[in-house]
Automatic annotation (TrEMBL):
Chain ranges of the UmuC domain: 75-187
Region ranges (Disordered): 32-62
Protein name: DNA polymerase Y family protein
InterPro entries: DNA/RNA_pol_sf, SulA_CellDiv_inhibitor, UmuC
Amino acid sequence: MPAAERVLVLWIPDWPIHAHLRDRAAQARSAAAQGLPAAEPGAATDMADAAPEVSPSSPTGAAPQWPALALVANHRVVACSPAARAEGVRAGLREREAQARCPSLEVHAHRPEADAREFAPVLTAIEQLVPGVEPRRPGLSAMRVRGPARYYGGEEPAATALLQLAAELGFDDARVGIADGIFAAEQAARSAAEAPGLSPAGPGIMIVPPGQAPAFLSALPVSRAAPRDFAEVLHGLGIHTLGAFAALPEEAVRQRFGANGIAVHRRATAAGPGHGAELRPRTPAREFTVELAFEPPIATAEQLAFACAALAEQFVSGFTAERLVCTALRVELTDDIGVHHEREWAHPRHFTATDVLGRIRWQASGLSHDAERGGAGITLVRLTPTHTDRAAAHEPGLWNTEPDERVHHQLSRAQSRLGHTAVGTMQLGGGRLLRDRQRRVPWGTRHADATGHASAAGPWPGALTGPAPSLVFTTPLPAELRDRAGTLVRVDAEDLLTTDPAQLTVAHTVLPTPVQGWSPPWPLREHWWEGAPPRFRLQVELSNGDAWLLYTEAGGWFAEGRYD
């Protein structure tokens, strides 16, 4: 059997908690930059003011000072902070049981996408220090130790350099394990310093000497390498440690347990690369983020756009080289007094260098210029892509439905002179009333860009499903609907009209032709929990062919639109 290669594993304990707090801090900064209020403290979607403070002088391996909090999925704890564990909370515990053990426990939904997103910049930083990194899962990465050991003069100095990098990134509780094989190195990182077979080389550094990985693993419980159901089967057979399982012949394990048993057996024996346990470093993702610093600061939006012309060309050319296009980007502006201004922009097609400059100019022109605030201007511009796509997917087709390039050029030029919101198009949004569905979107902005608007996908109970009126009033017109005797028509408790309509009055003008047909009224019940009165919609047709869309609220009628 070929010997397993020496592997270094960097493990950041409680990574889901790290990722959750950092994601909340990013949301809080974004909300503060946009002037939005933060969520209520303690809610499942609240935002922290910042990630946990980490002192550069604290010893490596010290646990962060977090409150008692837990992340749950399917009503079970996925991860918890050290303070919660001190109260008896454990991963896998039901949510109610965890709250019973720790009444002060903060419970939040676990989001795996946040774990991966927050770990991406950490991987990038590690790859700048040590190339050839394999991300095992968020919070855990592995690399061959031979190259770093030769560069830094030994395995312990290489581990120390990685822990120093982790401390600079804010992870003072990071740990390093070095052993023969990936599995043994991970177990070393997770083991206490007094575990048999380990040679602690410093705070947070656990090294298993070469050739000693099987002896180190032999005392560990079999559940470290086997899934829960398989570990229960082995316990039933009297096999409780990895050493006892490794003592079995591999062929016997294959015949009895199949592929799953072979995988666990090779972990227990620290199998070498000839048995599929080799390291597989990832190909580092290209970094498309660009930034430019200014000294002295730039005060006006036009000067800033002119100074960023080369930056925008560099940003777009990076995608062209990879046969990609950028369809959404984040522009970050930092002024000379440290205030951070951030906004995400999207494009209906893809960004060109001119489009990028336009977004920088619009964002800079929208900043507050308060004389009492102080500051001389912008000192740093950073462009980060938030969504990319294949360039081939954005090539014009034979029957292209996008606006003509000349139209786009002229409207974009007018927009650059008048401002981002001066040129726009009308689009349909979500809502029940017709006036709520109309929204004006700035030219060059996708439908989903504007915040604070509901999606048109719905569902919207009570919304008009048939043809919409050709004329929609921005402000509904007061109306009256009466029967032949002049009595006002109302909606009764059974959601039916109290009498047959005969005459319609709109904006205090009696329409000359009588009502000849009408639809059954249908309800629009919104915010009933706040005591809002229900609305009822009604379509009426006059004898001359005209039709009106009405609704009643609190006993009064209003004309919402007219069919021509």
